[in-house]
């Protein structure tokens, strides 16, 4: 499964990327987290569906109160990432 999630709200300047990396490290997922120019944060998670969903829930629980809206989509294709990383 490949899933791209865009979080909106007060998500930049609050450690969202670092907390996301930390929240997903216990799950078998790859991908990235990055700030977008529009003030939102994009997270791409790759892995088996159960691991992706658990990682997504972990991020959302950890950052509750900062994100107010999210958009997500499942992406076709093979995994592209070898690990999970912060993009600057």
Explained architecture:
The structure is a single chain. The chain is α+β, with helices and mostly antiparallel strands. The chain has helices at about 15-25, 50-60, and strands at about 1-10, 30-35, 40-45, 65-75, 85. It is built from two helices and five strands. The chain has a five-stranded mixed β-sheet, covered by helices on one side. The termini are far apart.
What layout of secondary structure does this protein have?
Layout: E1 2-9, H1 16-24, E2 30-35, E3 41-46, H2 49-62, E4 67-74, E5 84-87
Parallel strand pairs: 2-5
Antiparallel strand pairs: 1-3, 1-4, 2-3
Helix pairs in contact: 1-2
Briefly characterize the structure.
This protein has 88 residues and is α+β, with helices and mostly antiparallel strands.
DSSP helix fraction: 25-40%
Mean pLDDT: 97
Strand content: 35-45%
Determine the structural class based on helices, strands and strand pairing. Answer: alpha+beta
Question: How many DSSP helices?
Answer: 2
* Element order: H for helix, E for strand: EHEEHEE
* End-to-end C-alpha gap: 24 Å
Low-confidence stretches: none
Question: Any idea of the CATH topology?
Answer: Alpha-Beta Plaits
Which outline best applies?
globular
Counting DSSP E segments of at least 2 residues, the number of strands comes to 5
Radius of gyration: 12 Å
What composes the largest sheet? 5 strands, mixed
Strand line-up in the sheet with most strands: 4-1-3-2-5
CATH architecture group name: 2-Layer Sandwich
List the domain count as a whole number.
1
CATH class term = Alpha Beta
The quaternary structure here is single chain
């Amino acid at each position: 499964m490949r899933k791209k999630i865009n979080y909106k709200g007060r998500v930049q300047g609050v450690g969202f990327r670092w907390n996301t990396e930390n929240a997903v490290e216990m799950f078998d997922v790859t991908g990235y987290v990055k700030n977008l120019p529009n003030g939102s944060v994009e997270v791409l998670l790759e892995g088996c569906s159960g691991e992706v969903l658990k990682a997504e829930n972990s991020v959302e629980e950890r950052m509750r109160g900062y994100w107010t809206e999210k958009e997500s989509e499942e992406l076709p294709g093979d995994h592209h990432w070898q690990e999970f990383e912060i993009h600057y």
